[in-house]
Amino acid sequence: MVLGGTGYVGSNVSRHLSSLGFDVKALGRKECDLTSTKGRDRLIDLLSGKNSHIVFVAALTRSISETSESCFYNIRQVESLIYACGKAAPLSVCFISAADVYGHGGRQVSELGSYNAENPYGMYKLFSENILKFSLKSICPLTILRFSGVFGGFGDTTSLIFKLAKSIVTKEQITLHSNGEVYRDYVPISLLSKVVELVIKSPSNDTFNVSCGKDITIVKLVRFIEESLEGVAILSLLDDVRSRDFSLSLSNKKLLKKFPSLADFDLLKEVGLFVKSIH
Fold first, then answer.
1. What span, in angstroms and rounded, lies between the C-alpha atoms of 174 and 234?
2. Which of 41, 74, 77, 250 could form a disulfide with 209 if both were Cys (CB 3.0 to 4.6 A apart)?
3. CATH 3.40.50.2300 holds for 150-185+213-246+253-278
């Protein structure tokens, strides 16, 4: 059961699991509004008497709203999830978190890194991780997945990689602050979907960073996309530093120790394949 299954991440995860033969029920706000009593009770009905795994993706993301109100809206959804699991226990819960919990964490941050969420979305994710751990510990296994910069798959029109590729193709100017020297990592939706598959098949109480294990500066990312598309970017590099100009990337060592087969995912290969597919 994918809660938030009609959004970008949820729909891609649902498609992947369906392709493997899983009986997937993808639910969005229209089908199951977890901020309402009616939606909460519907979730209980859907779970009752079923051997269900839950993938929880439901959230107002930063791209939609980044306010305290959106934070509390998201927390109400988690509250409904906890209540429903207490009434009709699933086999497991996979909670899709975010790298935002690390704040300005630096490069190759491990799961044991310090938590210093700098925005309401990160605060919501961090609070939700902790309240879910406490509330579900006697109900079912909980796996938490943290990642940033997801791209590719079905319906990607908003990722940074999509926007950079589109700007190169349409010859629109790309402006990079901090001279584009900020390091970030990016996660193919195919990798995230594969990780969800694996944790459903082998549920555990654990937290994993989802990453290809490679970070790259944004200016080098632009140059790589140029090369992949055989195009030229109209690039403006500014040396001013904005509040969001900080390096953040996640270590995938723990993930690869648990699931060694994921080492086959190569960031630049996945970026190249994606930008060529949208050209």
1. 6
2. 250
3. no
